[in-house]
Amino acid sequence: MKERIEKALNDQIKKEASSSQFYLAMASWAETKGLNGTAKFLYQHSDEERFHMLKLVKFVNERGGNALIPALEKPPVNYETLENIFESLLEHEMEVTESINNLVDICLQEKDYTTHNFVQWYVSEQLEEEALARTILDKLRMIGSDKGGLYLFDRDLENSAISPDPAAQ
Ligand code: OFO
């Protein structure tokens, strides 16, 4: 595996690990606020990000590179509102999408079509994750500060009505 590709994949490993940590912090915050549905959704999302990281780790090692397990920064502990959480989540996903696109670009420049093919899975995943975050945010904006609406929103997430589909992985 070319050094530039290995470095780009290792950078992505760190991004996926940070995403997992970030969503874990959000999940924990939601749990302490009694938002059990939201917490469940975010714990699940955190697990998915860990899976994204592992998939990269295995790919790098299987192709003769060395996956680097990174140190992680401490994510924020406090969040103002649910809307605030999902805004940060969408913003974060948009950054990850940019980084995946950059990875695609590097694969093409280096003519590494195997890695390019592998990375396509992440391209579709990002599309889904951004769309999901936007749907959730739209719902939250519609609900505003209506307590009954927020209760139903949290229950919907608990029932996984709009949660990511683990089977899709
Ligand atoms: Fe790994 O998909 Fe989100 O960040």
Kindly describe this structure.
The structure is a single chain. The protein has 169 residues and is mostly helical. The chain has a single domain, classed as Ferritin. Helices cover 76% and strands 0% of the residues. α1 packs antiparallel against α3. The chain is elongated and about 55 Å long. The relative contact order is 0.16. Bound molecules: hydroxy diiron-OXO moiety. Hydroxy diiron-OXO moiety (OFO) is lined by residues 16, 19, 49, 52, 93, 96, 125, 129.
Strand-helix topology:
Layout: H1 3-32, H2 36-62, H3 82-109, H4 113-143, H5 147-158
Bound molecules: hydroxy diiron-OXO moiety.
List keywords for this structure.
binds hydroxy diiron-OXO moiety, Ferritin, 169 residues, mainly alpha
**Gyration radius, in Å:** 17 Å
Beta-strand content bin:
under 5%
Give the biggest sheet: none
Q: How many distinct folded domains?
A: 1
Q: Which class in CATH terms?
A: Mainly Alpha
In short:
The chain is mainly alpha-helical. The chain has 5 helices and no strands. Helix 3 runs antiparallel to helix 4 (113-143).
